[in-house]
Amino acid sequence: MISMEIKYIDIHSHLNLPPLSENKDAILAKMRELGVATITVGTGLETSREAVAIAEENEGVCFATVGIHPTDSDEEFDEQVFKDLAKKPCVVAIGETGLDYFRDQSDETKQKQVELFKKHIELAVTLNKPLMLHVRASKGSDDAYYDALEILKTSPLTPPLQGEGNRTLKANFHFFSGSKECMEKIVDAGYTISVDGPITFSHDYDDMIRAVPLEKIMIETDAPFAAPAPYRGKSCEPWMVVEVAKKIAELKNLDLEQVRVQLLENAKQFFALDL
What is the CA 6 to chain-centroid distance, rounded? Predict the structure, then answer.
């Protein structure tokens, strides 16, 4: 049962990875103190299982996703195993999955990622759960974002499905670092973005964040990576997501409480969280 008032949801963190996995109890205590929930994201089968275990042990504070990261794992996607895991109530999304062109733009690598991505899309549609997307473009480009959008657009599995009502496939572009124009394409297509600690110390995101509709953005940490100011240089933890919300409010010149409430609602709606 939920034993705290949730004020913020860090929609993408890795309590299943070290050093966070080695200090979970203290981190979770801090999260409960500050009213911060999180979604622990799977990057392969083992970390997906760990994400589910964490969520089941911390109901109402932690949720989970299951999937295979496009570059961090070479394992095969066992559809039935992931399907069984994804059916658990604590699993709120499929992923992280997508395309990563940052270090390798070879045709062979791209094709492998596309095939894996499409398997995740199929699972998301089958179970009517949203996608947690890892999309990273090549340097100075939005290429991977536009390719991911095209795959989502042209997939024969994209809902609404015949006889299933309005089961529209939802997808969130996590750790979005694309241009303002790219963000607009994503939002126009009906998807959302989420942002992290770097927005608190880099001005590269300012124009994009000012332009994105408040109802189309969510907040995350990607902990243990990319800690926000004033915690740079330290291992990032989910409760630090409060700093990301503060920066969004500052950039949009809005009251923090208004931003907090809308960000919370965005996450609840997107992930169908009964809070």
Answer: 18
User: Distance (Å, rounded) from C-alpha 44 to C-alpha 82?
Assistant: 10
Q: What token pair was written down for 190? A: 């009906």
Listed residue (87, 95, 116) closest to 220, CA to CA: 95
Q: What is the CATH number of domain 8-270?
A: 3.20.20.140
In contact, 275 and 19? CB cutoff 8 Å: no
**What does the pLDDT read at residue 167?**
53
What is the pLDDT at residue 72?
A: 80
Q: How far apart are CA 196 and CA 222, in angstroms?
A: 7
Please give the Cα distance from 103 to 259 (Å, whole number): 35
Q: Are 162 and 125 in contact (CB under 8 A)?
A: no
Flag whether pLDDT at 230 surpasses 70.
yes
pTM score, whole prediction: 0.94
